[in-house]
Design a protein that fits this description.
Shape: elongated
Largest sheet: 4 strands, antiparallel
Structural class: alpha+beta
Helix content: over 70%
Order of helices and strands: HHEHEHHEHHEHHHHHH
Strand content: 5-15%
Number of domains: 2
Strand order of the largest sheet: 2-3-1-4
Length: 309
């Protein structure tokens, strides 16, 4: 008996979906808009995070050492700093490498090149370029380098000549505030869009079920239980979500393809079309899951009004 009822519920759910063509089309269309909003928000969140990650990768602090600092001591300090949880990467630049980099940057400045050639010694100092795990941790790293008495005891008071954290502090603080702002704003936008999607879908499906209120009343009069009455509408709502998710996923193909070049070249951003293709399975599962949940849950809640009469 149970399996017979399940088959009947599934059958009438498909019939309701196909029979009410205009109502089903309207419900699917509204859900496509809702799912497209949610999917677009996810895409933009990934895009903004990539841009911020690219900006963070260009920010670092430099530790300059005294002219007579030994390379072995610098490499020993580098190895010690790599164990800090706040440190992501450390690059050692020797005096010779710093000199060559300086010459390359000023290759077109003949006066500067001539002045360098007249010098007997290399005036540039070795340095460490340190990148933190997150931008809010640069202050911790700089403080440990500037105020750590253990470093002075081991390497001498003049070993570290300068830490340029204060020179980059304005940029680091601004970037940190941007990262925090984007994370908070992104979360709020996603919550608002999900809420709007649920509200719009619920009201649309409620209007669709309103056209069948007489049918629900007849089923209640002949003794059908609530689950048997509600089942076909939940199945129809699930089908709305499935069809809407498939259409939305297909819609993202031309949209991401059309903005492919712009997103790839703007501020080192990612190619959204490539991201869509490479993460198709994940996007498919997210949109399909959200679509099914929206359709079935909205139908479940919408039909409850007529079951309580």
């Amino acid at each position: 008996m149970f399996f017979t009822n399940v088959r009947r519920v599934l059958r009438w759910g498909f019939i309701n979906f196909l029979r009410n063509g205009i109502v089903s089309f309207s419900s699917v269309l509204v859900m496509v808009v809702a799912l497209f909003m949610i999917g677009s928000t996810i895409m933009m969140s990934v895009y903004l995070n990539t841009i911020l990650a690219s900006a963070q990768s260009k920010v670092d602090i430099n530790v300059y050492f005294s002219v007579d600092a030994e390379e072995a001591a610098i490499l020993n300090l580098k190895q010690s700093l790599e164990y800090l949880p706040e440190v992501a990467t450390i690059e050692y630049v020797s005096k010779e490498e710093a000199f060559e980099q300086f010459k390359e940057r000023h290759a077109t400045d003949e006066l500067t090149i001539q002045a360098l050639e007249e010098l007997d010694d290399n005036p540039l100092r070795a340095r460490l370029n340190i990148q933190a795990v997150s931008v809010d941790q640069y202050g911790v790293i700089a403080k440990s380098l500037e105020n750590d008495s253990a470093l002075s005891a081991q390497y001498g008071t003049g070993f570290i000549d300068k830490v340029n954290y204060n020179d980059n502090r304005l940029v680091i603080d601004r970037l940190n505030s941007i990262v925090d702002g984007v994370e908070r704003t992104g979360f709020v936008v996603i919550v608002v869009l999900v809420f709007l999607a649920i509200l719009i879908t619920f009201n649309t499906i409620r209007l669709a079920i309103y056209t069948s209120k007489d049918e629900i009343g007849v089923m209640k009069l002949v003794g059908a239980d609530n689950m048997y009455v509600r089942g076909p509408f939940v199945i129809a709502g699930t089908l709305y979500g499935v069809v809407a998710a498939l259409l939305t996923i297909g819609l993202f193909y031309p949209v991401t393809l059309s903005v492919k070049q712009h997103t790839e070249t703007f501020f080192g951003g990612i190619d959204l079309f490539r991201y869509y293709v490479e993460n198709f399975n994940q996007i498919f599962l997210i949109l399909m899951g959200v679509g099914i949940a929206l359709g079935s849950l909205s139908s479940y809640l919408a039909v409850r009004k007529y079951l309580n009469k």
